[in-house]
Amino acid sequence: MSSDIETMELTITRTIPATPAEVYAAWLDPANPGSVWHGAGELIIEHEVDGLFYLAHRLKNGTLVPHYGRFIVLDPGHRLQHTWVSPFTRGLESTVTVSFEPKGADTLVKLHHANLPDDDGGRGHQGGWNYFLDNFFKKPH
Description:
Blueprint: E1 7-16, H1 20-27, E2 42-45, E3 52-58, E4 64-75, E5 79-84, E6 94-103, E7 106-117, H2 120-134
Antiparallel strand pairs: 1-7, 2-3, 3-4, 4-5, 5-6, 6-7
């Protein structure tokens, strides 16, 4: 991959009405509508450090969009980190770090996505992550 690609980072925060341990567990649970794993047309996931994942979300036109990476940090109730590669990262291995901090009875979730290409594909991750965080713990219709 060429090193001349300009990169960017994004950070998104949300307060979720649950404990850090509950939010961490829900983050990794494909049954949770706010989990990036939810609704994947195809999913393979190994919840362990150096464990790999592959997910493919189906677009409205039926096309599967592959995403893959590996878990770097799994610190239950506190933080998780994994790599992230998709067609929208232009082959760059980006890094997603999610922290879970107590905020009264709730949890402040901070998602930081680094090494994204500074283009429409990279910037599109802002909308994607906001979609999942906006749907966290929502019941399916």
